[in-house]
Amino acid sequence: MTEPFPNPALSGQSIAQDDYLGHLLSSNNSRSNSRKASLAYGSINDNEPVLRRSRSLTESITNSMIVATNVTWEQIQRRRFLSVCVFGCLFIFLFNLIFLPRTSLDRDLRRLHGEFLTFDDCSRLFLTQLNFKNNVKSYMEFMERDVHLPGKNHEAAESFFKKNYQFRTYSDKYETWMGRPLKTHLKMYDGDKLVYEAKLKESELLSFHPYSANGTVNSEFVYLNYGLEHDYEAVRKAGVEVGGLIGIVRRGQISVDRKIKIAQEHGISAVLVYSDPYDDGQQRVKNGRKPFPSGPARKPSSVDKETVSFLAEQPGDPTTPGWSSTLFAHRVEPKTIPKIPSLPLSYEDIEPILKTLKGPDVGWHGDLDFSYSCGPSSYSLDLLNIVEYKIKPIYNIVNEIPGVIKDEELIIGASRDSIGGLGGVSGGHVAMMELARGFDELVKLGWKPLRTIKLISWDGSSYGLLGSTEFGEFYSTKLAKNNILYINLDKLNGSQVKIESHPLFNELLLKVMKQVMVNDKQTLHQYFTTSNSSMGLISTGMGDYSVFQNHLGIPSLNLGFSNNKDTDPVPYFNSLSDSLEWYTRLDPDLKFPNVMAQFAGLFVLHLSEKEILHVRTYDYVAAIHSRYKHIVDKVPSYWFDRICDDESNKRLGTKVDEMDTLFQILLKKSSSFDSNIKLLQKQILQDYPWFKLLTKIKIAIKIKVANLKVRSLDRLFVTDPVLIDRAWIRHLIFAPSRDSQHVCVLAGLEEPLRSADYDTFAANLKVVGDALTKLQRKL
């Protein structure tokens, strides 16, 4: 077709244009992307056609199509690259997310708080540190070298902890009412003639009984054996009146403060207390043993000293019963201290006095050179006891290792002081210092326990559990809310393992004993079973644990080594003879404090480093049930038909049946609760993928709830006082007996039954039932 206005100059090129167009269209399908771009923007290759300015409508349309096609391919290419990049990143992200390492809740919590030492790491390092080196001797030298009177030389103890351990160490001060002996004497007269005067000294310091009464007594004297009620009955049957006389008693059977109170009730004017070698088992001079320091028998001049404050009624400062002795505390007239004077003596001092006794034979025996008749003597004694009582400060030393969980804490404590200030080497304080060394090694490695741990050095324990009691009363609200357990490190004056346990922790104690080595061949558990050791219940007597267990309802343990009278050297209490020289006779390798430190420390690690508390509520309920059945079996049959004087108007027999049903429910619930705790412990250690985060959160909530239940369980048994004359003791289940020699379970039922007090028994049975009902709801 001919153009309407042909251009003569270009008319000869029409064929070339057609060839050009065909060439471009055909080459567009076969060239590479780079080639297409060259066509669109001009080529530098002379052999390729170049897009020129369009000279016709056809050429213009063709060039536009070519450019559009090239641009579209370029965009597609770019978008494909971006798509591949995005898809690749998304794929890598999803791949890593799906196949992320599975983690346990235990591991997550430690990472969250920056704690990378596991329980296995902590226990291994702790035991290795204490096994590798034994520092007990240096600690005993520290205890022996310094004078540790209540309120004195606390700076040395505080400085020791600050210098050697990386804990948060501070002193906790209380203002307590206590006495200091000014003058004592004991003289024996034959008429007006002085025939003998006792030394009354073991060292430069006077021997005395803390909280003994001031006074001067001049009277004849009588021998009363152990000072028990039946001893007074034997004297009465022998026709001897003891009123107004000075009584002489020997240690043993019951606590010294109980002896003084019984004497006071029988009208005795003053009491002398000594230790008779007859009560020392096989280690006696009469059996061929030499006295200390030459042998294991009792040293004739040694004086055992104990407080005479009535601890079974109320320990601590007697002027602040039930509240803490701070500087401006309200004070009352003390009612739990003796009204008669007393003195401690060595058997060397008392023997010349006892030799003068003549009278009827009442069947008593001993190792001293006299008849063991009750007397009375024709000689008289002049006794003087002048004690200055003032308000003086005492200082507990607190060593704190802050934990991740701020509202849960574990406390380990031991007594630091001694009556007379010297001795005390065999106390649990040495074991606590060794334990602190093991924990310090972990702290140096960056260890932060899950729960706060406190190591407390008690002051004033020898005078009447002053430091621990005032601490417990001052921090009662905080302790009742946060404290999980108190562990008391008791005396280490023998070779038999002594464990006074709360049933909640019996299983864990046995487990830990199997993990601690006494020597290369024997675990502590094996040693425990072969050394006639025993595991009893807490509250066998009064100790620094009493304010925690008996007053605040905080589960407690009392750990130590007790004396075997057949094989161990004779022990001493608050005596100068309680020395490093004596202890090396008992334990030449000084291993017992180190072993006890390992045992107590590893037990604490089990509780501080595990998210769920290792307890067995079934054991606790079973122990209460067993004792309850024993008490009910002794109830007189006619009591069951009597109507209880309360709003229920039920017979006692009906209430007993209801209690039996309640115990059966509790046993089942406690067993189920323990099974759930075991399951939670497994779930804590189980690894979960990331998308199971909600499951981990649910487990964490269950753990917190379970721990709260465990922590508050024993508080349910803290009630208004149910024990007559012992209002300070508020725990329904555990209480020391009145003689402070054995534990009394369900004392609120046991004591009224023994005294045939039906009304009190029935009232306390209701209180116990209400507490058990609360426990059943809690579980």
UniProtKB/TrEMBL annotation:
Residue ranges occupied by any Peptidase M28 domain in the UniProt entry: 396-565
Domain annotation Transferrin receptor-like dimerisation: ranges: 661-778
Chain spans, region Disordered: 283-305
Keyword terms: Membrane, Transmembrane, Transmembrane helix
PANTHER family: N-ACETYLATED-ALPHA-LINKED ACIDIC DIPEPTIDASE (PTHR10404), VACUOLAR PROTEIN SORTING-ASSOCIATED PROTEIN 70 (PTHR10404:SF46)
Record family assignment: Belongs to the peptidase M28 family. M28B subfamily.
Protein known as: Vacuolar protein sorting-associated protein 70
Organism: Ogataea parapolymorpha (strain ATCC 26012 / BCRC 20466 / JCM 22074 / NRRL Y-7560 / DL-1)
